[in-house]
Amino acid sequence: MDPMKAQQLAAELEVEMMADMYNRMTNACHRKCVPPHYKEAELSKGEAVCLDRCVAKYLDLHERLGRKLTELSVQDEEATVYEAKVSLEARYKFLGFNLLNDFAAFVTIATFIVSTL
């Protein structure tokens, strides 16, 4: 896929995800903080405070989840690279190469690992 198209697709997906998060937050906080039958046209002080706290908590949780998912993704990627390295080392040892002493074999393996990312 063209890098520009991939970047545009990623940006569109991010906008869609943010809109979805905003809609979910709005619905959840509205249900929690605003009674179904309005008595006044404006929010009461209690409703406004409730909405402010609800939105702050929702955004904080969203940020924390994002950090955790990123952390898990990095760990998963590191594990995948490690498994590929171990697998390739085993193959090269089976073929009689010693990666510590054969720089060309090491470069070949490193190139392969990088190309699979």
UniProtKB/TrEMBL annotation:
Gene3D superfamilies: Mitochondrial import inner membrane translocase subunit tim13 like domains. It comes from the Eukaryota. The keyword Membrane applies. It is a peripheral membrane protein. InterPro entries: Tim10-like, Tim10-like_dom_sf. Residues 7-70 form the Tim10-like domain. The chain crosses the membrane at residues 94-114. One of its GO terms (molecular function) is metal ion binding. GO terms for cellular component: mitochondrial inner membrane; mitochondrial intermembrane space chaperone complex. It is found in: Mitochondrion inner membrane. It holds the Pfam family zf-Tim10_DDP. GO terms for biological process: protein insertion into mitochondrial inner membrane; protein transport. Keywords: Chaperone, Disulfide bond, Membrane, Metal-binding, Mitochondrion, Mitochondrion inner membrane, Protein transport, Translocation, Transmembrane, Transmembrane helix, Transport, Zinc. Mitochondrial intermembrane chaperone that participates in the import and insertion of multi-pass transmembrane proteins into the mitochondrial inner membrane. May also be required for the transfer of beta-barrel precursors from the TOM complex to the sorting and assembly machinery (SAM complex) of the outer membrane. Acts as a chaperone-like protein that protects the hydrophobic precursors from aggregation and guide them through the mitochondrial intermembrane space. Mitochondrial intermembrane chaperone that participates in the import and insertion of some multi-pass transmembrane proteins into the mitochondrial inner membrane. Also required for the transfer of beta-barrel precursors from the TOM complex to the sorting and assembly machinery (SAM complex) of the outer membrane. Acts as a chaperone-like protein that protects the hydrophobic precursors from aggregation and guide them through the mitochondrial intermembrane space. Belongs to the small Tim family. The twin CX3C motif contains 4 conserved Cys residues that form 2 disulfide bonds in the mitochondrial intermembrane space. Heterohexamer. This is Mitochondrial import inner membrane translocase subunit.
